[in-house]
Amino acid sequence: MTALTLSTAGAATLRADALVVGVAKGAKGPVVAPGAEAVDKAFDGKLATVLETLGASGAEGEVTKLLAPAGLKVPVVIAVGLGSVPEKDAAFDAEALRRAAGAAARALAGSKKAGFALPVASVEDAEAVAEGALLGAYAFTAYQGGENKLAAKDKKNGNGPKSPLAEVALLGAKPRDKAFKAAAERAVAVVEEINRARDLINTPPNDLYPESFAAVATAAGKEHGIKVQVLDEKALVKGGFGGLLGVGQGSTHGPRLVKLAYTHPKAEKTLALVGKGITYDSGGISLKPAGHNETMKCDMSGAAAVFATVVAAARLGLQVNVTGWLALAENMPSGNATRPGDVLRMYSGKTVEVLNTDAEGRLVLADALTRACEEKPDAIVDVATLTGAMVLALGHRTFGIMANDDAFRTSIHEIAEEVGEASWPMPLPADLRKGMDSPTADIANMGERMGGGLVAGLFLQEFVGEGIAWAHLDIAGPAFHEGAPYGYTPKGGTGSAVRTLVKLAERTAAGDLG
Q1: Is residue 70 a contact partner of residue 62, using CB atoms and an 8 Å limit?
Q2: How far apart are CA 62 and CA 60, in angstroms?
Q3: Active site residue 362
Q4: Catalytic pick among 106, 276, 315, 362
Q5: Cβ atoms 119, 34 nearer than 8 A
Q6: Comparing C-alpha atoms, which of 438, 429, 423 is closest to residue 477?
Q7: Using an 8 Å Cβ cutoff, are 102 and 135 in contact?
Q8: pLDDT 10s digits, 290-299
Q9: Whether the predicted model's global pTM rises above the 0.90 cut
Q10: Of 73, 181, 288, 491, which residue is the catalytic one?
Q11: What is the pLDDT of residues 319-370, one digit of tens each?
Q12: C-beta neighbour count of 143 within 10 angstroms
C-alpha cells in the first residue's frame, strides 16, 4: 500500500515528483487555498490567475497540472479543486479535503512521491487528507501485467497498468505532535483495511468462494490476534443453519459461517456485526437476466466490510469487543439448488417459504443474526448488498439505514455523515409485514414489490433477539462502482460502510453508543 509520512519540509523545500495544492471556487474565479502560500509566491502571487487562464475554476474534483516555477524543488504542481470557498472563519469540509486528496492521488499514479499541501487547520483535517490520498491511490492489479512477454512489452512501452502513488508526504501537519501522529496511524490502519475489503470484492469468484474467503479471514485472525471460528457444511448441518445451507446447496462450493472475535480486556460493551457474503449470486433457480450477472462477485461486500472492521478494531486496539459474523455462500442453479416453493427451517427454528431464490441474502443473514443474538451483544448491525429496490430509492452513492431503535438509527446516520459516507434513514412500516405471510410456512422470503428494500429489512427484523438494538445497512448502491473513478472512489469495489462501522466501534468504546 501507499506509504504515508508527516513531512517536516515546507512546500518550497520538499523534494518529490509533485506537489499538490488546493484551489477553491470563489465568486470571481479560483482562489488559492491555505497551504499553498509558498507555491503562490513561486508563481509571483499569480497562481490563481494562471489557473484561471488554463480553465480551472476550483470546482470539486478538478485537477490541473502545472510545470513548477523556479523556487520549488518539485517539477510539477497539481492544483486540485476543493469546491466553494467556505464562509468567513469556516474551515474546508473534511469530505471536500478527502475527495480532493483522492483525486490528486489518482492523477499521480506511477509517481514515487508527492507532497500534499492542502489546507490542514486541525488534526481532523490532516486525517481527512491522509485518508483521501491513501484511498485514492488504490489500484487492483492482481490480475494484470502477468509474467509473460506481451505484458512485459506493454509495461516497457508504458501501456500497462500504472503502479499507485508510492508515498504521500503530508505537509502542514505536526510530525512530533502525538495527536497528529495518532491520526496518521489511524488513517493508515483504516484505509489498509478498506483496501483489503476492496481487494476481496474485486477478486473474481473463481478464486473467492466461501472456503477461500474463510481461509483469508483465518490468516488475518492469526496475524492480528483475532479468534476465528469457521463452521463448514458438516457443522452447519449439525447446527441446523437452514438458511445458509439452502442458499449454498446449489453450488460445488459449500457455505461457511465465520465468526471473528476481537476482545479487549477492559471492554465494557460488545458490538456484533453481520455481513452478507454471497461470493457470487447467479440468482439461483430464479436466474438473473442477462446484464445483471456480470458484477455479482460484489455480493459479498457486506461480509468484506465486517471483516475489515473487525481487523481495523484490533489494529487500533479499541476498548470494545467486536464480533464479526460472515455469512458466506455461493448462490448457483443446479439439480441440487433450492427451488421456488421450497421451505427452509432456519437456525432460529422458524420456517421460510422461498418464493424467489434471488432473495437469498436475507436467508443467510437471518441465520447469522440469530446466532449473533445468542451472545447478547449490546448492539448488532448487519451490512448487505441486499436489494435493488434500495438502489432505486437512493441511487448508487447512498446506503439506507433501518433499525428497531430510532435513536440507534439516528446515531449511525450521524456517524456515516461525519466520516463522509452518504446514507439515509429508512422506515420499517409494519403494514408491509403482512405481504410476507405464507400459507405454508411461518414467513415467506418475499413480500410486496413496492418498498422491497423495506420488506427485506422487516424480514431480517424477525430474526433479531428481543431487547437488542439492531440496525440494517443496505449498501447495494455504493458497494460497487461501475462508472469512472471520482474523488477517492475507484472503479469496482469501494469498501462502503467500513468507515462508518469503525467509527461506531470507537463511539461504543467511548460509551457513546446511541
Answers
A1: no
A2: 6
A3: yes
A4: 362
A5: yes
A6: 423
A7: yes
A8: 888 999 999 9
A9: yes
A10: 288
A11: 999 999 999 999 999 999 999 999 999 999 999 999 999 999 999 999 999 9
A12: 10
